[in-house]
Design a protein that fits this description.
The chain is of the alpha+beta class. It contains 7 helices and 19 strands. A 5-stranded antiparallel sheet has the order 6-7-13-11-12. It has a 4-stranded mixed sheet with strand order 1-2-5-3. A 4-stranded antiparallel sheet has the order 15-18-17-16. Helix 1 packs antiparallel against helix 2. The longest helix is centred in the C-terminal third of the chain and has 19 residues.
Length: 304
């Protein structure tokens, strides 16, 4: 391990922060693709984050922050520098007042949805079954089935590279289709508050199960993927355009356009990142040539 990480490792040992050297990133993405990260950190508290982030900056190490890796494609060569993962260890949640849930960024969306159901609160049903973290959902304004994070979020808190804790209101978050103020920034989202409405728990639960069943029926959940690979182009749908071009089942090595849902590019057979990237580019090129639409990839690239 390069000496540049020695001080960060020593800090992790003092703080009790879990870390792994040369950690295979395929273990931390829903694509099941990716080479090793030089140093992989799993903080378990906000206090650790507040001390780690300035230390990483001071050492001049490249830093990548991830959640559950459900919208992430990682290079076959891995990731240089530090990868900091916000997972279940930072997943606490509570109802702070009537209709408001405060949730740490490492919690899964499914867990947040179930908590809202327990509290008889409606508004998050659309997110049940989205395989991501709360932090990742805020980062990209995740949405499905007519709902988006921007519809229910009240505020979000983050720690900047200097270790300072700050917050943005919903308006300040600048939320739009698959975009937030955090997109492309290096701030670490640590929590979000959601403003929900009282509802009938039977109706809430039924809607959640209905949407999850619809996902199982229409999406290739049996294969590793990052969900919908492309953003929705104005005036159409990526999956419809890809299907129109006859690309279901189109393969590059172990990467394939799903035969079940054309909007999903799947790791069909031990695909490499290079193969998945080639498939993405082929789909974009063919759709552009045959329909005139330019598809934009929704998946975040790391180490590429």
């Amino acid at each position: 391990m390069p000496s540049q990480y020695a001080d960060i490792i020593a800090l992790c040992e003092r703080e009790g922060c879990a870390f792994r050297e040369n950690e295979p990133m395929l273990n931390h993405t829903s694509f099941k693709i990716g080479g090793p990260a030089d140093l992989f950190l799993i903080p378990s508290s906000l206090a650790q984050l507040e001390r780690l982030l300035p230390a990483i900056r001071q050492e001049g190490c490249p830093l990548s922050i991830i959640g559950r890796g459900s919208n992430l494609l990682v290079s076959d060569n891995g990731v240089r520098g530090v990868v900091l993962a916000l997972t279940g260890s930072l997943g606490e949640m509570e109802q702070t007042e009537d209709g408001v849930i405060l949730c740490q960024a490492g919690a899964s969306l499914d867990r947040l949805c179930r908590f809202a159901l327990e509290k008889r609160l409606t508004g998050l049903e659309f997110a049940f079954g989205i395989p991501g973290s709360v932090g990742g959902a805020v980062y990209m304004n995740a949405g499905a089935y007519g709902g988006e994070i921007k519809d229910v979020i009240r505020s979000a808190s983050h720690i900047d590279k200097d270790g300072k804790l700050s917050a943005f209101t919903a308006d300040e978050l600048d939320l739009s289709y698959r975009h937030s103020r955090y997109t492309g920034e290096d701030a670490c989202i640590v929590s979000a508050a959601f403003a929900l409405m009282p509802g009938d728990p039977e109706a809430i639960g039924a809607r959640m199960e209905e949407l999850k069943a619809r996902r199982r029926q229409k999406q290739p959940l049996e294969y590793p993927s990052a969900g919908s690979t492309f953003k929705r182009p104005q005036g159409s749908y990526a999956s419809a355009l890809i299907d129109q071009c006859g690309l279901k089942g189109y393969r590059v090595g172990g990467a394939m356009v799903s035969e079940k849902h054309a909007g999903f590019l799947i790791n069909y057979d031990h695909a490499s990142c290079a193969e998945m990237l080639a498939l993405i580019e082929d789909v974009k090129r063919i759709v552009k040539e045959r329909t005139g639409y330019s598809l934009e990839c929704e998946v975040k690239m790391l180490g590429i």
